[in-house]
Amino acid sequence: MPVDEYSHLFSNGDVKIQYHLYGQGPALVFVHGHPDNEMTFSKQIDEFSKDHTVILPTLRGYPPSDVPLDPDAYDGNVMAGDLVALLDHLKIEKAIFAGGDVGGITVQKLDFLHPERLLGLVIFNTPILGTMMHLIHHDKEQQELTKYSLKYIKHNPGDEYDLDHVVRTITDPEYRAEIKEYLKNSPEGGMFYFFRKNFPAPPYGQNIDTSGMHYKMPCVVIWGMQEPYFSDKMLDGFYKWFDQSVRVVTLPQAGHWPWREDAPKVNRELRSWLKALETGQL
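Structure for AB hydrolase-1 domain-containing protein, as requested:
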């Protein structure tokens, strides 16, 4: 793995955020989710730093980045602003963004708000937001799958929570233990505030305006079919949300963390898509 001898910091307002930087070339930003941190993408660093500037930010709420204890600080639009601030800090006009889970929601928000800063978008096992707004409000199966989020939404800083339950779907025992230790030593309030601000909650049955939830640049969706949190219906009619090309890759043996659980295939598929994107073949 290329050596990043120390972490770097940038600020968005009064919130300081850590990031790691590897390689040279077009900017490729990987954005982690929950329960996780930026090094969840360690299996992508070697491959893509060969010819890209690989950037791994640590989201606000996840140490050593700042953890503001204000629910409004975790609005998806605010966190998308962190990614704009990162590009400004590095004097990068546009980048390719890839995200999973919380990071996947954040990069989608970035697309909706600041499409001029993206060259392309990679979505790993994260709800297609327009479809999710329908499923969570009208589909009993999806409501059942996302019951876990209700405790997160109600959580207040300092409340007790079950760490083993939080990390239960990380399939690699060694990595699960590593993340459990990281969470044990990190304040949890900001992480759960994200769910309060961004995740649909009861009362269900609402009809949400999804007209602004379209993707304005080439995209690839990489989806582990053993996904524990989201119904396969998330991929139904996916094409209607994408204004340019979209490629969908399904991995039968991977789950919520395909970039870790089936890293060789993910890297190969992502490399293929990047080549097509960067040579104007999409």
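The mean pLDDT is 95.
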